[in-house]
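Report of the visiting student (M.T.), summer placement. My assignment was to run the structure pipeline on a short list of targets and document each run. The first record concerns GNAT family N-acetyltransferase.
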Amino acid sequence: MGFTTVERTSPDGLFRAVYRELLVPSFPPEELDAEDVLAAALEDGSANLFAVVDEAGAPVAAAFGEWSAESRVQLLTYLAVGPAARGGGIGGRLLREAVGAWAARRDPCLVVAEIEDPDAPADEAHGDPRRRLAFYEAAGAEVLDVPYFQPGIGGPERRVHGMLLLVLHAAPELRLGERVDGEALRLFMEDYLEEVEGGVGADAETAALFAALDRPGGVPMGPWHPGK
Ligand SMILES: CC(C)(COP(=O)(O)OP(=O)(O)OC[C@H]1O[C@@H](n2cnc3c(N)ncnc32)[C@H](O)[C@@H]1OP(=O)(O)O)[C@@H](O)C(=O)NCCC(=O)NCCS
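After the run finished, the structure tokens were exported:
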């Protein structure tokens, strides 16, 4: 069967199908923003969607990303392949296409993704966190050495703890050897927390994350190892 990658910058029927048929089954509810929130991000131009469709135009895989202009950080917010098509190379191809397109359009920029703790238990619908990390590392991702959490959709009490923040692309201007520019990441996190939680909290978890981002010389990154 022939697959094609298409792009959407406004919330049409394909976006709705991607949300309902690919994102809802692939992500736990605490990690997935509401359909209308993603639609609004497409409308205001901060987000775009790449979807792989089959010959009938039905979505089989999707990459949804959001751009933070102030920090020059592009977040791969959601990447999902329908369960029946997983393991066939579609996800890897879409990841390379999406990261390549964002880097070409936005550079100098960082492209990042957040993934679950690789030590978390596997679950049939949402996938195996260890294999997911291997998938990203095979695409060249490096793990930032920060105590990352996904901001809580609707408030800090809904945070997803123990996540990893990955770098999928770093422009030479933002890369300092095996480190990346902490200022860009700090601005990105401030923006993200304000948008999702309504502000930057004064709690210990946020302070620890920001202290890691503010290290002199940048934020170290590299392969993941248990206990990182
Ligand atoms: C992770 C995912 C995007 C990979 O896409 P894919 O098309 O299946 O991957 P490819 O065929 O290009 O590459 C195969 C690799 O993907 C990973 N992978 C495949 N199925 C997976 C699953 N169910 N769970 C986790 N990782 C998986 C493995 O690393 C696999 O390599 P392996 O077979 O040697 O273990 C896809 O499995 C998926 O949608 N999972 C659920 C949602 C998700 O985890 N999204 C990413 C977090 S933002």
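The longest strand covers residues 160-170. The chain has six helices and eleven strands. I thank the supervising group for their guidance throughout the placement.
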